[in-house]
Design brief:
single chain; 396 residues; OB fold (Dihydrolipoamide Acetyltransferase, E2P); 3 domains; 7-stranded mixed sheet; 5-stranded mixed beta barrel; rod-shaped
Length: 396
């Protein structure tokens, strides 16, 4: 091989490195032309793992291709007659360095992340609308192929108002339908709300979604927001729900202490405690929550604890009650005095139930419970102010 033949071969790797060196180190997505224009064009990932050398012919505004022009993407490893071969040619309209071909668009375009492009689309109410597009692997960005619509909302926007947020989402979807009409029977536009201004973080991640949903047109039906999520309104609802729960807890506490005071309750007992020692509290006014098992006579009932979550079920006999005492849930709060352990026959019960024996309560007052386990009385931190089976005094 002659020296004249070897020289071009030796120069090929050097030319390739020189061509790649024209790509600025700080340009993550835009590639600067290697010719004198030094004009930048958005470069898709499919043209190489590294930014390929590119030549651009056409107008350039603020360092980016603008208007009708031509960009040629070169292969730095393949040469013909001493020049890099062309891998792809883009000829048509460029906007802010982004190739859009022959699509009519005069707004602002920008490469946002390595795989996304954004186009600004005016305002939707007080929000700025931005369409997010997937970066093309080849050729122009397809402006009617939308990953999602981002609404950039200012401070003060009422995110907690679901009606307002969903109205803005539907307006954003209407703008898409107007700009990109379609006869498809089903069409969905994903809409996300971000806080303005739009700034990706250090790792290029998208901003935190304040709210998001999919606005769906389904076979001529009115647009519907589906898969909706709004953290702000959810937080408000949770706060309201917690306030309502706190109010109910306070109401239950007040009702409990008021009932205890009005009836001069000296101790709250479980049926198990009364069954274990029915004599300990004789002469004292006791209160219990009980569930009806069955009426043994018009005035005598066979009952258990209203809360059966414990491992021991203890029955009791109540006298001085009737069929209306226990309400729809067959549950009641009863107040009275323990009368030792008796047989049902001692209370006037006859027939097959007369031999039943249990601790007995003479009921002087009863209130049917409206909630399971009498939660209208016990739906608060009752254990902090009352201990079952211990002397009790109602709070003032």
């Amino acid at each position: 091989m002659s020296p004249n033949t070897r020289l071009p071969r030796l120069l090929l790797p050097l030319l390739a490195v020189t061509a790649l060196a024209h790509t600025p180190a700080g340009a993550a997505d835009f590639v600067t032309s290697i010719d004198a224009s030094a004009c930048a064009v958005w470069g898709p990932w499919s043209l190489g793992d590294d930014k390929q050398p590119m030549r651009y012919q056409g107008p350039c505004v603020k360092g980016k291709a603008e208007g009708r022009g031509k960009a040629q993407w070169l292969n730095p490893y393949r040469f013909k007659e001493g020049k890099e071969e062309v891998d792809a040619t883009w000829e048509g309209t460029f906007r802010q360095g982004v190739f859009i071909g022959d699509q009519p668009f005069k707004g602002r375009l920008d490469g946002w992340r390595s795989n996304l492009l954004i186009s600004e689309r005016g305002s939707v109410g007080e929000a700025r609308a931005v369409w997010v597009h997937a970066a093309p692997s080849q050729g122009p960005v397809k402006l009617c192929e939308i990953e999602r619509v981002a609404l950039l909302v200012p401070d003060g926007f009422k995110l907690e108002d679901d009606s307002l947020v969903q109205a803005r989402m539907r307006s954003a979807q209407e703008a898409v339908v107007a700009a990109c009409p379609s006869n498809a029977p089903f069409r969905a536009v994903d809409v996300v709300l971000w806080r303005a201004p739009l700034i990706a973080d250090e790792k290029g991640q998208e901003p935190l979604a304040l709210a998001k949903g999919s606005v769906v047109l389904d076979n001529g039906k009115p647009a519907e927001v589906r898969a909706y999520r709004n953290d702000a309104s959810q937080a408000v609802r949770q706060k309201q729900a917690e306030a309502e729960r706190a109010t109910k807890r306070n109401q239950a506490r007040q009702a409990f202490h008021r009932f205890s005071a009005e009836n001069k309750v000296q101790v709250w007992l479980t049926a198990s405690q009364a069954d274990k020692d029915p004599f300990k509290w004789q002469g004292k006014t006791v209160a219990m929550t009980v569930k009806l098992d069955r009426m043994l006579s018009p005035t005598v009932a066979w009952v258990f604890d209203a809360d059966r979550s414990g491992y021991r079920y203890a029955p009791m006999l109540l006298k001085g009650v009737n069929s209306d005492t226990f309400g729809k849930l067959d549950t009641a709060v009863v107040v009275g005095r323990l009368d030792g352990r008796k047989k049902a026959a001692d209370l006037g019960v006859s027939g097959s139930n007369d031999s039943i024996e249990a601790s007995t309560l003479d009921v002087v007052h009863a209130r049917a419970c409206e909630q399971r386990q009498c939660m209208e009385w016990f739906g608060w931190d009752v254990h902090k102010e009352m201990t079952w089976g211990e002397p009790f005094k109602a709070a003032p």
